[in-house]
Design brief:
Elements lengths: L16 E5 L9 H13 L4 E5 L7 H8 L11 E3 L1
Parallel strand pairs: 1-2, 2-3
């Protein structure tokens, strides 16, 4: 989606931000599904990736193998998560 922001500095023309949120890796969402998300995000060639919302539904150590694809996210100016 293209968003026009009046007065935005020219340096940000065409700047791409991809946000993914509420992935909820857990009992039903596993590695393969997350890998597909990561592949689609990276195909967009974003400048920045923002990961927001609930990433896991359960223990991070138990789900580590399923969230591993997140390490493959790439944004020219970074990948940010909270």
């Amino acid at each position: 989606m293209r968003v026009r922001i009046p007065g935005l500095p020219a340096a940000f023309e065409g700047f791409r931000i991809v946000q993914i949120t509420d992935i909820h890796v857990g009992p039903t969402i596993k590695n393969a599904y997350l890998q597909a998300i990561v592949d689609r995000v990276n195909a967009l060639q974003p400048d920045v990736v923002a990961v927001t919302g609930d990433v896991v539904d359960g223990s991070v150590p138990e789900l580590a193998a399923h969230v591993a694809p997140l390490a493959q996210l790439h944004g020219r100016d970074g990948v940010y998560h909270r």
